[in-house]
Amino acid sequence: MSTSPEHIVIAGAGIGGLAAALALQRRGIACTVIEAAPRPTVVNASILLQNNTMRVLGELDIGRRTAARGRRVARTSIMSVNGRILTEVKAEDVEGAVGAPALGIHRADLHETLLSQLHYGCLVTGDPVIGFETAAGGVAVYLRSGERLPGRGLVAADGIDSLIRARLHGDRPAVSSGTTCLRGVTETAAERPDEVLEWWGYRLQFGIIPLPDGRSSWFALIPTPAHPVLDPDDRLTFYQRLYRQFPREARDSLAATEPKNTVEFELRHRPWRGGSGAVTLLGDAAHPMLPNLGQGAGQAIEDAAVLARRLDNAASPAAAFRAYEQERRARVRWIQRQAIRMNQIASVPSGPLSTARDAVLRGLPARLERTSVMRMFDGAHT
Q1: Residue 92 forms part of a structural domain
Q2: Is residue 91 part of a domain?
Q3: Do 181 and 291 touch, CB atoms closer than 8 A?
Q4: What pLDDT was estimated at residue 379?
Q5: What are phi and psi of 261, to 5 degrees?
Q6: Which residues contact 9 (CB under 8 A, 6 or more apart)?
Q7: Cβ atoms within 10 Å of 341's Cβ, excluding its own
Q8: CB of 308 closer than 8 Å to CB of 20
Q9: Which residue has the higher pLDDT, 96 or 206?
Q10: What 3-state DSSP class applies to 271?
Q11: Containing domain of residue 51, as a range?
Q12: Which residues contact 65 (CB under 8 A, 6 or more apart)?
């Protein structure tokens, strides 16, 4: 296998890497995507594409294809365990200003939509990046097979445990949030199929994201156990016990899920990092964030759009990469901080604190809530 020295090499065929490839294609910039796995795969879980994300996907000419495989969200509500609304976002308050809807979609459907638009031959699978060298003329990327790929620049989209980030910065392991998430997909439709629902207790959070075709998905957040339950059947039973005081919709979602359709992982994050020379970082490689705002994949997609715009007619990839990093740094850091803060507020460690939190949230003026929401949705344009 070989590639042109004029290509941008993208390490990783996840959502961020594929979005970057599509954004570059749209501007006529040649690229090659290197994926370590024999075939690109994703976890069996849903994703909430917020309005800012759908706007950028629309600008990349795949908004309609994406929307056709998902379900529009009319309302997002965060509630107390007794069902009282703490805060909510209605579609009519956001869609007109942002110019796009929010969407619930299965990760595999989003991934397939992105893959389907790649130019033939630009994806290489089953041969991971193991190293790279930079020089005045660009970059050389080394694969496990011994292949050496020259390129104009290297974009690391290889996830939270990015090898390329580690080689650039020698970072320590990602920071644990102290929270573990179990996600599941059921073959039964949500009772409120156009709404994202989330309930906050103390130390526990549960949410439901609607999907099309009679399916629904959910997520359950708990304090990270000292001794994780590894067996999927026992693990699901463990969560069912934890959530027995939550509303019926949460309990029914857990009961309707096959253990094989769940996946558990600890929530981790890292501070934002940029690149060096003809190398830059994108998505989780640059700024892995907690999922509490539904912005992880969205920020990777925004990265992709800004990166392609900066590379278009740039004097050099290195100059374009530094400009991209400068443009993205403040926004990404702000969203990272807000996601951490949201997780801390949602997972307060006692009943009295959760009661106080609920009272404060219910008392916030709608104007303040809308200002915060619109700042988050004020994303990048291509």
Answers
A1: no
A2: no
A3: yes
A4: 64
A5: -100, 25
A6: 3, 31, 32, 34, 139, 141, 149, 151, 153, 154, 155
A7: 13
A8: yes
A9: 206
A10: coil
A11: 8-71+107-173+271-345
A12: 113, 116, 117
For 343-361, b/e burial (b = at least 16 CB within 10 A) is bebbbbeeeeebeebbeeb
Is 115:18 a contact under the CB 8 Å cutoff? yes
Residue 102 burial (CB count, 10 A)? 26
Given a cut of 80, whether residue 380 has pLDDT beyond it is no
Average pLDDT over every residue of 345-358: 93
CATH number of the domain encompassing residue 50: 3.50.50.60
Classified as helix, coil or strand, 58 is: helix
Q: CA distances (Å), 87 to each of 269, 363, 365, 372, in order?
A: 25, 10, 10, 12
CB count within 10 Å of CB 169 equals 15
How many domains is the chain built from?
1
Place of tokens 């445990």: 161
pTM score > 0.70 for this model?
A: yes
Q: How far apart are CA 72 and CA 210, in angstroms?
A: 8
Q: Work out the number of other CB atoms within 10 angstroms of the CB of residue 11.
A: 28
Q: Cα separation of 294 and 149, whole Å?
A: 35
Length of the chain: 382
Tokens of 319: 């100059």
Taking a C-beta distance cutoff of 8 angstroms, is the pair 307, 322 a contact?
Answer: no
Token code pair at residue 374: 């619109």
